[in-house]
Amino acid sequence: MSEKKALEPLVLIVSGPSGSGKSTLVQRLLNMPGTMASRSCTTRPRRAAESTGKCYDFVTEPEFNEMVSRGVFLEYARVFGKHSYGTPKKWLDESRARGLDLVLEIDVQGAKQVKEKLPESVAIFILPPSREELERRLRGRG
User: Fold this and answer.
1) Which residue has the higher pLDDT, 56 or 47?
2) Where are the beta strands (DSSP E) in the chain?
3) Which of 20, 24, 58, 123 has the fewest C-beta atoms lying within 10 Å of its C-beta?
4) Contact 8, 73 (CB under 8 A)
5) Considering its fold, how many domains does the chain have in total?
6) H helices of 6-130, where?
7) What whole-number distance in Å separates Cα of residue 96 and Cα of residue 89?
8) How many CB atoms lie within 10 A of CB 121?
9) Phi, psi of 17 (to 5 degrees)
10) Minimal CA–CA distance to 55: which of 37, 77, 70?
């Protein structure tokens, strides 16, 4: 009789342009049992409706660069040449330790890095329903 090997938790990468609906999909995925979210670090300013530690950990550019030099991130990127975003490896470690599927909400550059490091991960690319709807969403969030 052979022993069954426990399945490794999945890494689900949700990616797409700003305003495409990534956050809505991620919230629905996180309502499923056996899932957990990662939390990205960013150097961009906090929006009025955001708080540190919920969706993002807001850090300064020097703090972010120091984290990069220490190898803290599973993936990181500078987006639109303005602000840096990165996912700490600790979320992958925690998901594996807890046996939970990890949901990453990251940009396309980060998704590519994760797929290279974790080819078994599942990448989901979201597109908005139309250009007009995308513009409406982006204008609505300021």
Assistant:
1) 56
2) 11-15, 35-37, 40-42, 56-58, 73-79, 83-88, 101-105, 122-125
3) 24
4) no
5) 1
6) 22-30, 61-69, 90-98, 108-117
7) 11
8) 17
9) -70, 155
10) 37
**What CATH number is attached to the domain comprising 27?**
3.40.50.300
- Determine the pLDDT at residue 51: 65
Any domain includes 63? yes
**Each residue's pLDDT tens digit, 66-79:** 999 999 999 999 88
- Residue span of the structural domain in which 44 resides: 11-140
Amino acid at position 35, single letter:
T
**Position 47: which residue type?**
R
pLDDT > 70: what percent of the chain?
92
Residue 46 contacts residue 58 (beta carbons within 8 Å): yes
Q: For residues 85-100, give the mean pLDDT.
A: 96
**Environment class of residue 131 by beta-carbon count within 10 Å: exposed (0-12), middle (13-18) or buried (19+)?**
exposed
Tell me the CA distances in angstroms from 44 to 26, 31, 37, 47, 50, one per residue in order: 21, 28, 20, 9, 12
Find tokens 């500078």 and name the residue.
Answer: 78
pLDDT band at 125 (very low <50, low <70, confident <90, very high): very high
Model's pTM, two decimal places? 0.82
* Residues contacting 27, CB < 8 A, separation 6+: none
Answer whether residue 2 is part of any domain: no
